[in-house]
Design goal:
The structure holds two protein chains of two kinds. By secondary structure, chain A is α+β, with helices and mostly antiparallel strands. Helices cover about 20% and strands about 20% of the residues of chain A. Classes of the chains: A alpha+beta, B alpha/beta.
Chain lengths: ~150, ~500
């Protein structure tokens, strides 16, 4: 089970993690500038919280028993039994926002991509099918985001 | 308010085609150059605050930013340059001593670049360092007067030594002038590389005591953080008399930088100015210096070498001779290009002499007097690459200190604004929002990479000269030739001209 661990001690609060996350999920085949020029852009699955000198990038914890999955009324939000990744099947999402309300960490957001017909739940999917290592981890300029692998399925 | 005559030096150019308004530049600039205009919903610029540190340029994910020098110029005047005129404007407006940081940036000769190295051809074979062992190990400390003792055996009762795997150390940069994260990176890199870093005059933070074997602790005129545990914590003690960037001048860490961390380490109240006097008030002669050297040796039971760091000034050779006679185990000589966290501009740019001359003069003098073995020489003051290291050793150094090069490895962009305390690279600052920009894991890795690369290069060049041990190069000026140097300059450096 992979998890993104944020090291607040070295988080610059620059927000590049969110920039790259949003761009990659919006338009995986486009560069950053073009991705940002899309009429609609998916929300980033990672958010930087800042207060004075403190900053930390928060993203989904891919919980053992995720409330978002439990609460999903259509079965769109699923936890991959093999990898433990929690992700949203956009096709099945009916935009009821139960998951948004259910997530105690506020890590599910409402979003609409450039090609989507309807808004849907959007969250960190650990860049499944997009990048071997999550793009936020790859692009963090201070190595404040670390991908850790834990034993077994969480 | 009267008219401000100083115009911005730099222009930040934003390519609107590439800018994605991500606001990374805004949150990375401690000088407030980039700002988000909420009404127009786009980034705006205040270029007057730009110091050309490149933080925004490097962090911008779309390469939308460039910093260029302003094309705005005064009428051409070789004497009254723009720099000279603006300095007058600044002083006329403020009445202040001009401050600056890092080493002398004047376009004087860089003598390293006027020295050429030898290599083997036909009559003597070069050595391939990938196939044959190459010894770079260096011992800093006094050596015995003779090789054999009275019984005719090899003298093995040596004075204390510091063992270095490569002849390069991180020079004194205090906690205060740079952040704790940079100190951590230097300490970890020194441990991994088997060399030493120098605490500088700001004491030794408790988290860094574990790196004692790879630490040289400094005792400067302010005596910050000095107690018996501090003296015993390192593998050597260095008495700081002077610094290349500001010979004859003390130091001043403003109270605003004296955080609880600095206060604890320096053993001074939080928020108070940390002032290092220009002289040590107990040292007015070589005899006084000798007292301090022996007090410190006594304190560490003669188990650690005690050295003296001086700035390269006009009569450096005579001073070095005195330092040797004061019982120092090593002398660090800091040339006029040596860096600083803050120095008066006039002092930095006009005081002191090049390390190349100082080093050659000191080595000559100590040899003439037959006391060269009594102390090791550490050369400092702008060692920029492995070739400079080799040349320094051929001129007579045992090892070198690097400060600026190390900071560059950590990310410094040489904007020379350390004294403002707003280092956007998180190095020369105590602002917690900025200091975390140096992740010690990343920084120590880069320092290790740098010196591993230099180590390979040094071995290559040594091998090319047919030398397999650094000891055979020390003071071996026959391996050097001068180019574009006057006869007098070559005479002082003790090198022949190219072609001779």
């Amino acid at each position: 089970m992979k998890r993104i661990v944020a090291l607040a001690e070295y988080c610059l609060g620059c927000g590049l993690c969110a920039v790259y996350c949003s761009a990659l999920h919006t338009a995986p085949d486009l560069d950053l500038v073009r991705a940002f020029r899309q009429p609609k852009r998916l929300a980033a699955g990672i958010t930087v919280e800042k207060n004075l000198e403190f900053a930390v990038a928060r993203s989904c914890r891919h919980c053992e028993n995720p409330y978002c999955v439990e609460s999903c009324i259509t079965g769109a939000m699923v936890k991959d039994p093999l990898t433990g990744e929690v992700w949203c099947d956009v096709e099945r999402c009916v935009a009821c926002w139960t998951c948004v309300a259910a997530c105690p960490y506020g890590m599910v957001t409402i979003s609409q991509g450039p090609h989507d017909q309807h808004p849907h739940a959007q969250k960190c999917d650990l860049c499944r099918n997009l990048s071997e290592v999550p793009v936020c981890v790859l692009k963090c300029p201070n190595e404040a985001l670390v991908l850790v692998e834990e034993e077994g399925v969480a | 308010m009267a008219l401000n005559l100083i115009r911005p030096q730099f222009i930040v150019e934003r390519d609107r085609e590439r800018c994605i308004d991500c606001r990374v530049c805004e949150n990375q600039c401690a000088n407030g150059v980039h700002r988000w205009d909420q009404t127009r919903r786009e980034m705006t610029l205040d270029t007057s605050q730009c110091v050309n540190c490149h933080r925004c340029v490097v962090m911008c994910p779309t390469e939308a930013l460039t910093v260029v020098a302003t094309p705005h110029r005064f009428r051409d005047n070789a004497n009254w340059t723009d720099k000279a005129i603006y300095e007058i404007y600044h002083q006329a407006a403020t009445g202040q001593v001009l401050l600056t940081s890092m080493g002398n940036d004047r376009a004087h000769h860089i003598y390293w670049d006027h020295l050429l190295l030898n290599a083997c051809q036909v009559t003597n074979p070069p050595i391939d360092p990938l196939r044959e062992p190459m010894e770079l190990k260096t011992f800093v400390g006094a050596k015995p007067d003779r090789l054999l003792n009275q019984r005719g055996e090899i003298e093995d009762d040596l004075p204390p030594q510091v063992e270095l795997e490569i002849p390069v150390m991180f020079s004194a940069m205090s906690l205060g002038s740079i952040s704790l994260n940079v100190h951590k990176a230097l300490a970890r890199a020194a441990q991994e590389l088997g060399i030493c870093y120098n605490t500088g005059e700001g004491g030794l933070h408790k988290d860094l005591r574990q790196y004692g074997k790879n630490t040289i602790v400094q005792v400067a005129s302010g005596r910050f953080g000095v107690d018996i545990d501090y003296l015993r914590a390192g593998s050597a003690i260095e008495i700081k008399i002077g610094q290349g960037a500001k010979p004859g001048i003390g130091g001043h860490l403003p109270g605003s930088k004296v955080s609880s961390q600095i206060s604890e380490t320096r053993m001074i109240p939080r928020g108070t100015d940390a002032i290092s006097p220009a002289p040590h008030h107990d040292i007015y002669s070589i005899e006084d210096l000798k007292q301090l050297v022996y007090s410190l040796k006594e304190a560490v039971r003669y188990q650690k070498p005690v050295g003296v760091k001086i700035a390269a000034v006009h009569n450096v050779a005579a001073i070095a001779s005195g330092v040797a006679r004061a019982g120092a185990d090593f002398i660090a000589i800091d040339g006029y290009r040596g860096g600083t966290g803050a120095a008066p501009l006039r002092t930095r740019d006009n005081v002191g002499i090049p390390i190349e001359f100082a080093l050659a003069a000191v080595d000559n003098r100590l040899r003439e007097e037959g006391i060269r073995h009594r102390l090791s020489i550490i050369a400092a003051g702008s060692i920029r690459n492995s070739a400079d290291v080799i040349k320094a050793i051929a001129l007579g150094a045992d090892a070198v200190y690097i400060g600026t090069a190390a900071l560059l490895a950590v990310g410094c962009h040489m904007c020379q604004k350390c004294y403002t305390g707003k280092c956007n690279w998180g190095i020369a600052t105590q602002d917690p929002w900025l200091t975390k920009r140096v992740n010690p894991d990343v920084a120590s890795r880069r320092l290790i990479n740098l010196l591993r690369a230099w180590e390979h290069e040094i071995k290559e060049m040594l091998g090319g000269m047919g030398i397999n041990s650094l000891d055979s190069l020390r003071s071996n000026r026959l391996m050097l030739r001068g180019i574009n140097l006057s006869d007098k300059e070559r005479e002082i450096l003790g090198v022949l001209a190219a072609g001779e």
